[in-house]
Amino acid sequence: MPDVKFPEQSNLCQYFLTSRIAAGRGAHPAVVTAAGAWTYAELEELAARCAGALGERGITPDQRVLFLLRDGIHFAAAFFGTLRLGAVVAMVNPDVKPEDVVHYVRYTGARAVVADHALTPVLQALPADLQHVVILTSGAPASSTFDRMEDALARAEPLATPAPVHADDPAIWLFTSGSTGLPRAVVHRAGDYIFNTEVFAKGTIGLRPDDVTVSVPKLFFGYATGTNLMFPLAVGATAALFPERSTPESVLAACARHRATVLTAVPTMMAAILAQADADPRVLDALRSLRFMFSAGEALPRELYERWKARTGVEVYDGIGSAEMFHIYISNRPGDVRPGTLGRIVDGYRARIVDDDGRDVPDGEIGTMHISGKSVGLCYWRDREKSYQVFRGDTCITADKFSRDGEGYYTFHGRADDLLKVGGRWVAPLEVENALLGHAAVDGCCVVGKADADGLDKPLAFVVLKAGHPPDDATADALKAHVKDRLQPYKYPRWVKFVDGLPKNDRGKVDRKAVRALV
Fold it and tell me: How far is CA 21 from its chain centroid?
């Protein structure tokens, strides 16, 4: 097990950015966008100016700075500038509902907000008790009500030296996916980010200085914060950013524009790109420079992996992480990919799969994941009871259901509240979905529970069909028979509902809560 040594100076701006300049990477591109490129030295200067701008406005170490920013150079500058000051980053989707902005400002106790200029009307209407909050806007016109990032950075006196930060000091809050209610924030120490970077990004995956990264998820999501900002900078590579919503077109354009070598993806986007390639195979030319892809955030069906690999030739390292652990702790890796599984434990982490009484289950049986390692969060902010349930020392008690085979490969079966009890036996919706995706007519699907006439839960499949397949009873019967042929008969969907699309959350994953509301 690796023995990660946390530096005495654990300021994350120092670790991810300043140290690269000391290592001779100052003139290498750190961030590129359609608008241009910024070297490590230039990004360091912007971060120092942002730290100075925040300090001049009264922001001090340990205070929270709320991000409502689109991906781009201002996100990178504000991110490392906040960390350089020793303040705490809290990141939220900039497309948050306007009525939720006040909630996040209050919930985080933020003393400053760095926001996309489109949110100006919402921020202008902050209630009187929040008028003290410092507001900086990115991309705003010269007549902006608040300080513009461009002007603030130009005028600020740079903070020459990163503030002293201990590895155990709070550094970045990550928000959960919000499966119930609004997302809650996980409070993470600076050392959590250093640990996972060392054991996963460097040790398990082996990012290189010549890599150029592109991401489907946006930087406010910890998955992308790692793979498309922190990890590439930790090895002296280049992060390619684009502010637009991630679509097959925008992702492929970014990959082609910057000749990406690493793509951070989610299975939903992989399926969408393949659907475009069915109509025009030339779209896959944009991926020719890739040497591998990350997949996480939702289950990657084996059938989709195999289609992707056959069409693109690009290897996919599927893994699982969480906001509670910062990033990926089980993963496939170079030279060791087991399709249909999440791979093996990342060196430095420990995993147990236990039953309802906390006893380890035998290999091959499904249980609940307990994951331990030096990146576990401290707590959920302002949720003491839930924190007690989930965080136990260096261990996170997840709600995820897993099995492990005799060779140490892990298979994800869904969250505890996703599982269905059918005839007294557990059914994992993911297993049914994977079977459905193996049918030539199915483009996407989501399986949830529905009560039958006797009030007993049975599987219901919402299915998106590929072009040319009729949404009729014959197709539904064919899909049911297809599942029966591949799984034990009690697992087949009793109902099939055809839909034009499946709702997604702000991470790009199928929103099971929203799907359940359709039942």
Answer: 28
Cα 276 to Cα 436: distance, rounded to the nearest angstrom:
20
pTM (two decimals): 0.87
In this structure, which amino acid lies at residue 138?
S
- The reply to whether 142 falls in a domain is yes
- Is the residue at 294 inside a domain? no
Question: For residue 354, how far is the Cα from the chain centroid?
Answer: 26
Do residues 76 and 29 touch, judged by C-beta distance below 8 A?
A: no
* Predicted pLDDT of residue 9: 87
Q: Both ends of the chain: CA-CA distance in Å?
A: 47
Closest-CA residue to 199 (of 9, 373, 359, 386): 373
Beta carbons of 83 and 89 less than 8 angstroms apart: yes
402, 410 contact by CB (below 8 A): yes
Q: 114: pLDDT confidence band, cut at 50, 70 and 90?
A: very high
Residues 258, 36: Cα–Cα separation, whole Å = 11
Q: Which domain holds residue 135?
A: 12-197
Q: Output the domain CATH number for residue 486.
A: 3.30.300.30
Over residues 411-435, the pLDDT tens digits come to 998 887 788 878 667 788 888 998 9
The answer to whether residues 346 and 330 touch, using CB atoms and an 8 Å cutoff, is: yes
- pLDDT tens profile 193-233: 999 999 999 999 999 999 999 999 999 999 999 999 999 99
Residue 176 counted as domain residue: yes
Q: Please say which residue of 160, 179, 197 terminates a domain.
A: 197
DSSP calls for 324-358: GGSSEEEE-BTTB--TTS--EEPBTBEEEEE-TTS
